[in-house]
Design brief:
The complex is a heterodimer of chains A (249) and B (196). Residues 1-18 and 147-184 of chain A have low confidence and may be disordered. Chain A has helices at 2-14, 22-37, 39-53, 103-119, 224-240, and strands spanning 67-72, 83-86, 91-94, 123-124, 135-143, 186-193, 212-218. Chain A is elongated. Chain A is α/β, with parallel strands linked by helices. Chain A is 31% helix and 16% strand. With 196 residues, chain B is mostly beta strands. Chain B has an eight-stranded antiparallel β-barrel with strand order 1-2-3-4-5-6-7-8. Chain B is elongated. Classes of the chains: A alpha/beta (249), B mainly beta (196). At the A-B interface, helix 3 and strand 1 of A face strand 1, strand 2, strand 3 and strand 4 of B.
Chain lengths: 249, 196
């Protein structure tokens, strides 16, 4: 080894080798000088460099940051429900300028939720017949460059549909997801609420309990196809980890 | 706490120069989590190093100071986790890290003579910074605390030439529980050089 190093040094002194950068030569020369001054110090420095090189990296892919969180009301009887209403769009919350959701992605998301509900024995009612539903599913999408979106507001208004944000007075408005996470990336929040459930005494007039919430989030990649695939997977996972969502009717 | 740390560092640095016979050591450390720590991270650490100074009071007794760094890391999942309550489930990958920085005042006793392989036994006592972090999805749970720590150790010095030896040792590194943070313990195996 020593012979090899000496040979290498003698060659480097003559002229730079093809393929050996000036930085490498400089580093080698400095290391040799340091070694002469302080053997322990040089060994320590080299050891630290090696350790720094193998420091654990953590998540490598966008999907490594994906998280699916579900929570539910332990006292609510999911088996007694049958019919649900779900809008054909989602609420989009963002602080990114000129940002819009692709309707195809929205359709894919809602379709996947509907498919899972159907597998669990539930039936969708028509968009124009929300009063036939036992429960309502609402979906919000958040894309944020910052943090501190800790409260999800009520459903969007649908002008011209005959009812407003308060469901025409028939359905009480509801509160959104009750997680106080800060969303720094992309999130989808799915809420299950039941218009027949009375609001808690302490609740404000525009508040209604949520019986099930599913939150998916992760770092958004630049590929919308990749983001869509991850959301679809998360929808399936949310239902998989919520076996109590099953209609007995 | 910082004042004590500075005192310990100064103590370690001057320990080798105060007396005629001193020893400076550097080492590559391998860590093996044990006890409750192995429930959090079971994988051994191959990322660690240490520096130490020892001053000899007699031929068989030394005091000094040491600083070590060990990084433990393990990846879990993706899998389902119950978090905080019975009803809440989270699915994803978890990345767990422990960075341990023990800063110890040490004392060692040596068997045998200087011109031969010498076994030694000793212990360290001092402060230990534990930086424990869990990355779960886009969230991070971080816990950084200084703890009281101690570290009994057995080892051997194998002479290479008149002023340097190979230094091998096994150490039980323990940082006590602090508040809500659990105790951290691991075995540390040292492969190093000692310069007289």
């Amino acid at each position: 080894m020593a012979i090899y190093l000496n040979l290498k040094l003698s060659v480097l002194k003559q002229k730079p080798l093809i393929g050996v950068s000036k930085k490498t030569i400089l580093l080698y020369t400095m290391t040799k000088k340091m070694y002469k001054i302080s053997k322990p110090g040089t060994l320590l420095a080299l050891g630290l460099l090696l350790l720094a090189g193998c420091y654990p990296k953590g998540p490598e892919y966008y999907s490594d940051t994906d998280l699916t969180v579900t929570d539910y009301d332990l006292e609510y009887n999911f088996g007694d429900q049958k019919k649900y209403w779900m809008a054909d769009t989602v609420e989009y919350i963002t602080n990114i300028d000129n940002s819009e959701l692709d309707q195809e992605d929205v359709d894919a998301l809602l379709s996947q939720i509907a498919s899972n509900l159907e597998k669990a024995g539930y039936e969708a009612v028509g968009l124009a017949n929300p009063d036939e539903a036992d429960f309502v599913i609402t979906v919000s999408v958040i894309a944020s460059k910052n943090t501190s979106v800790s409260w999800v507001p009520g459903p969007p208004c649908y002008p011209g549909w005959g009812w407003g944000c308060g469901w025409g007075g028939y359905y009480p408005p509801y509160w959104g997801g009750y997680y106080s996470y800060s969303y720094t990336t992309g999130s989808v929040i799915t809420n299950w609420w039941d218009p027949d459930t009375p609001a808690p005494a302490a609740a404000a007039d525009d508040e209604q309990p949520i019986h099930w919430v599913a939150t998916f989030n992760g770092l958004l990649s630049s590929s919308s196809a990749n983001n869509k695939d991850r959301v679809i997977f998360s929808v399936d996972q949310a239902f998989k980890q919520s076996p109590y969502i099953k209609s007995n009717k | 706490m910082k004042r004590y740390i500075y005192l310990l560092v100064v103590f370690a640095l001057i320990s080798t120069s105060t007396f005629g016979q001193g020893m400076f050591g550097i080492s590559y450390d391998i860590g093996l989590p044990i006890g409750g720590t192995s429930d959090y991270i079971g994988a051994p650490s191959f990322r660690g190093f240490g520096i130490e100074g020892r001053a000899f009071i007699t031929d068989n007794l030394s005091y000094g100071g040491s600083f070590n760094w060990a990084t433990f890391y393990e990846e879990f999942g993706p899998e389902e986790w119950n978090i905080e309550s019975e009803s809440r489930t989270a699915y994803g990958k978890q990345y767990r890290y422990i960075n341990s920085f023990p800063l110890m005042a040490t004392m060692h006793y040596y068997f045998g003579e200087w011109d031969a392989t010498r076994l030694y036994a000793g212990a360290g006592i001092g402060a230990q910074k534990i930086d424990q972090r869990t990355d779960f999805g886009i969230y991070t749970i971080n816990d950084k605390k200084w703890r009281f720590g101690f570290a009994p150790e057995v080892g051997v010095l194998i002479p290479v030439n008149f002023n340097s030896s190979i230094n091998l040792s096994a150490k039980y590194q323990y940082a006590v529980k602090a508040g809500d943070s659990d105790a951290v313990s691991y075995l540390s195996f040292k492969i190093g050089f000692a310069f007289m």
